[in-house]
Design goal:
Layout lengths: L16 E7 L2 E7 L5 E6 L4 E4 L3 H4 E4 L10 E7 L4
Antiparallel strand pairs: 1-4, 1-6, 2-3, 2-5
This protein binds 2-oxoglutaric acid and fe (ii) ion.
């Protein structure tokens, strides 16, 4: 998945985005839009990632390509819509 921010026009501005992961672990990476600073996380089975406030304004994110993926991964993402 390519670098992006979750900024569809239907999304509430600065609304929280909650992401639940199940199954195979995957890396998740953030990159700051202005400084290029990178932050890597591991999304383990059962982990909850919450992106709040101005995260989408200032940071891109992606699932970096993995050479080996062991098993199925399911992600449930909850977003606040508006309009
Ligand atoms: O699969 C994930 O953990 C997140 C995917 C993602 O960034 C998205 O759906 O916008
Ligand atoms: Fe995303």
């Amino acid at each position: 998945m390519a670098w992006h921010s979750d900024a569809e026009k239907e999304l509430k501005k600065n609304g929280p985005i909650a992401s639940l992961s199940f199954g195979a672990e995957r890396k998740f990476a953030f990159k700051h839009k202005a400084t290029g600073e990178k932050v890597d996380l591991l999304l383990a089975h059962g982990s909850l990632l919450v992106m709040k406030g101005s995260t989408q304004k200032h940071w891109l994110h992606r699932l970096p390509p993995s050479l080996r993926v062991f098993g199925l991964r399911v992600n449930l993402t909850f977003r606040v819509m508006e309009g």
